[in-house]
Design goal:
alpha+beta, Arc Repressor Mutant, subunit A, Alpha-Beta Plaits, 2 domains, four-stranded antiparallel β-sheet, 4 strands, elongated
Length: 154
């Protein structure tokens, strides 16, 4: 799909506020509401918009601590990487994970109730895995998502 300036601006606006009413979106872009609605529908169908997400205050759902866990695998084979990916996807404490290049193989964002929960997660969920060789945990003091969208394809 070839995106134009209007499409990029729709993506920017929805990144800042996914609940922006269609009428307000159209006003901000200077287009008709029917045009905005059709373009958003087309962006969905083309896969440019994958979905919408609610930003939830962690403490509202019992999350008292977040951390980034760096994991180095014993072997960096396709089989081990795939198995570890699948495993991480099934852990409820895992908010996001990245397969990365460098000294470590994975960077995992976890959310837990507190320090005891974090310790148990690391000991029970990560150190018991045969593919894991090394773990390093960094506590997150604060988190803020950037609402701006870096668009490079314009």
């Amino acid at each position: 799909m070839q995106l134009d300036r209007t499409d990029f601006e729709i993506l920017r606006q929805l990144r800042k506020n996914a609940r922006l009413p269609n009428k307000a979106l159209a006003e901000r872009l200077g287009i008709a509401p029917s045009t905005a609605l059709e373009r958003v529908r087309r962006l969905h169908e083309a896969g440019a918009i994958l979905g919408y997400h609610a930003e939830i205050r962690p403490s509202a759902i019992g999350i008292g601590l977040q951390a980034l866990v760096s994991v180095r695998l014993a072997r960096h084979s396709r089989t081990d990487v795939a198995a570890f990916n699948t495993y991480l996807g099934g852990l409820r404490e895992v908010l996001a994970f990245y397969h990365i290049a460098g000294a470590d193989d994975f960077l995992i964002h976890v959310a837990v109730q507190g320090s005891d929960h974090l310790r148990d997660l690391v000991l029970d969920a990560f150190t018991t895995r045969p593919e894991v060789a090394r773990i390093e945990t960094s506590l997150i003091f604060s988190f803020q998502r950037n609402p701006e969208l870096p668009v490079y394809a314009e």
